[in-house]
Amino acid sequence: MQEFLQCGRFRLALGQADRPLVMGILNITPDSFSDSGQFMPLEAALDHAEQMIAEGADMIDIGGESTRPGAPVVPLEEELRRIMPILYALRDCGKPLSVDTYKPEVMKEALVAGADMINDINGFNAPGALSAVKDSDCGLCIMHMQRDPQTMQADPHYSDVLGEVSRYLRQRVDEIGAAGIARARMCIDPGFGFGKTLAHNIELLKNLELVLREVQLPLLAGMSRKTMIGAITGKPVEQRMAGSVAAALVAVAHGVRIVRVHDVAATVDAIKVWQATRPDAAAASAAASM
After folding, report:
1. Is 235 considered catalytic here?
2. CA distance 209 to 256
3. Exposure letters 125-144 (e unless 16+ CB within 10 A, then b)
4. Backbone φ and ψ of 161, nearest 5°
């Protein structure tokens, strides 16, 4: 298992002895399921990003198009209009900047502006996506999704969700590697909530080690405030912080190295406590001090 992720200007330590990383979510959209577009204006978005960094975020993930179930497609020009100003404003913030997009044209512009990672819900399947990222040194987050955001929650079905998700991710990693992109630039995301029922999501969460074993790349997980958290807790979006933090801790306990979250401060604190109380924490601390 690789212990580092090449992520543009950054080389991220993702070994088992390293603290799992927290990726803060910055939605620049008027219809996000979670923040209702409150971070759309540039000043508000910049303030929120700086707040997440102050709270301990290791990365910032910028998105200009909502990928909630049933969300409408955003035109290319509008997505660029939303994300480019904040990307330029944050390029020297000292943290890796990820851009959440599946459009090759957006990938190209984002990389020119200083993006360090492309987070693609479509697994870089769009024509031109691999060409857009191939000649850079950005990180690639390769996600599994059944169908597309408009139809993904219309009766999703699997014969074996663990096997199918794992095989898809392994196949995409192999195909992307064959296109000349180094594995050191890749991480994988099982795609919680993207074409999956609650039962599918729970089955994946309980068995993330199997996905990790199959693909042998760092795992990223995003469950923050999602419908699966609401279904388990019975809470509306604005009251899902505790459930989201709990899900993040379960994920890291099962091998996830990056968690994508809205509630940065609470997640960072929870992971610090988990890291300090792991059975091998004392040994890791002693080795680090030698």
Report:
1. no
2. 9
3. ebeebbebbeebbbbbbbbb
4. -60, -40
* CATH number, position 54: 3.20.20.20
- 226 given a catalytic annotation: yes
Q: pLDDT tens across 113-122, in order?
A: 999 999 999 9
Residues 263 and 206: their CA atoms lie apart, in Å, by: 22
User: What range does the domain containing 124 cover?
Assistant: 4-289
Q: What is the 3-state secondary structure (H, E, C) of 167-200?
A: HHHHHHHHHHHHCCCCHHHEEEECCCCCCCCHHH
Looking at the DSSP assignment, which residues form a beta bridge with residue 7? 10
What string of DSSP letters covers 233-282?
H---GGG-HHHHHHHHHHHHHTT-SEEEES-HHHHHHHHHHHHHTSTTHH
Helix residue ranges, H only, the chain: 42-54, 76-90, 104-113, 129-134, 161-178, 198-206, 208-215, 227-233, 241-253, 264-276, 281-289
pLDDT tens digits, one per residue of 217-241:
999 999 999 999 999 999 999 999 9
User: What per-residue confidence (pLDDT) applies to 42?
Assistant: 87
- DSSP one-letter code for 227: H
13-22, 34-43, 264-273: range with lowest mean pLDDT = 34-43
Query: Tokens 């603290």 correspond to what residue?
Result: 19
pTM for this model (two decimals): 0.91
169-202 confidence digits (pLDDT tens): 999 999 999 999 999 999 999 999 999 999 999 9
Per annotation, catalytic residue among 103, 172, 257, 260: 260
pLDDT of residue 149: 61
Q: Hey, what are 193's tokens?
A: 């909530």
**Residue 183 β-bridge partners:** none
Number of structural domains (the chain) is 1
- The catalytic residue among 226, 240, 257, 272 is 226
Neighbours of 4 (CB within 10 A): 14
